[in-house]
Write a structure and sequence with these properties.
The protein is α+β, with helices and mostly antiparallel strands. The chain is 21% helix and 27% strand. The strands form 4 sheets. Strands 7, 8, 9, 10, 11, 14, 15, 16 and 17 form a 9-stranded mixed β-sheet that branches. Strands 1-6-3-4 form a 4-stranded antiparallel β-sheet, with no helix packed on it. Strands 2-5 form a two-stranded antiparallel ribbon.
């Protein structure tokens, strides 16, 4: 593997990672790379701590510390390109903003080797094979629709990844919940993998910090339309947080099973909600610093047709 000077990435660790294992610190500090790839690079002496090469995963890192990662010249994305429909909102030299449709998986995985956003991106932008995860720096659940930003080169990927890490990227969602929420609020509850169901996340003391803010847009009897902004970006965060409050998202197949309807719901509305095929969640606004111009850019996405129809049905039955 050849290393070029421009392939050296240097980052300072956060104080929260002090006294943790190097492999854990690496994964948290360079989230754009997979744990397996970071492990391989660590074993191949491509990781330095304060200018000293370390190759032991169990080595404890003490804050403050500066990590240096030497990224090899190799294709970092090995999945196959596919010609699929992509709703491209904006495309620049540094990034592309996608309005993802619900039903599209972001990354290939078990049971989803093709037909993903990553496959589509590789077809549309072949140069993304040189980037980890084809430039994808954050994700949306399969059945969540809305805006995502994808990096198109290494400097842009580093900038956008750092913006996610320091929480400067603004992500605002629209959600429809079971239950009437009377006032806006903040949810601060740590999220980790569910101890019994590995498909789910849960509120657990040992979980990672998770903070969501919600604002009531309108009520429909015993249902609510919310605007939810993320301060952190944990897996299933909005779905887990709203369910924790007792207001699961309408149509959520994983977290909303116990409370699909409010008690006084008419039969017709019950049938509509019962047949709604996904969690009622849409990534409606996205703002970040353009890695090339250093100016803030903002994008908005209107509610898709299925959520517009759901809102009308809730309004009519309220």
């Amino acid at each position: 593997m050849t290393i070029k000077k421009e392939n050296l990435i240097t980052r300072e660790i956060s104080e929260a990672l002090s006294n943790k294992r190097l492999d854990i610190v690496l994964a948290e500090t360079f989230p754009e790379y997979s744990r397996s790839r970071l492990k391989k690079w660590l074993e191949n002496n491509l990781v330095s701590v304060n200018k000293r090469v370390i190759n032991k995963p169990s080595h404890k890192i003490i804050f403050p510390a500066k990590l240096e990662l030497s990224v090899p010249n190799e294709n970092l994305t090995e999945d196959l390109p596919e010609q699929l429909d992509l709703n491209i909102v904006e495309s620049t030299e540094g990034y592309v903003v996608i309005n993802k449709s619900h039903g599209m998986v972001v990354h290939p995985g078990a049971g989803n080797k093709s037909g993903t956003l990553l496959n589509a991106l590789l077809h549309e932008y072949p140069e993304l094979k040189k980037l980890p995860r084809a430039g994808i720096v954050h994700r949306l659940d399969k059945d969540t629709s809305g805006l995502m930003v994808v990096a198109r080169n290494e400097p842009a990927m580093q900038s956008l990844s750092e913006q996610i890490s320091n929480r400067s990227i603004k992500r605002i969602y629209q959600a429809f919940t079971v239950g009437r929420i009377e006032r806006s609020g903040k949810i601060e509850a740590p999220i980790g993998r569910h101890p019994k169901n590995r498909q789910k996340q849960a509120i657990i003391e040992s979980g990672r910090e998770a903070i969501s803010h919600f604002k009531v847009i309108e009520n429909f009897g015993s249902y609510s339309h919310l605007e939810v902004s993320l301060e952190t970006g944990r897996t299933h965060q909005i779905r887990v947080h709203m369910n924790h409050l007792g207001f699961p998202l309408i149509g959520d197949p994983l977290y909303g099973r116990r409370r699909r309807f409010a008690k006084n719901t008419h039969q017709k509305l019950r049938e509509i909600i019962e047949s709604f095929p996904r969690q009622a969640l849409h990534a409606a606004q996205l703002s970040f610093i353009d890695p090339t111009t250093s100016k803030e850019v903002s994008f908005q996405s209107k509610l898709p047709s299925d959520l517009v129809e759901l809102r009308e049905n809730l309004l009519n039955q309220a």
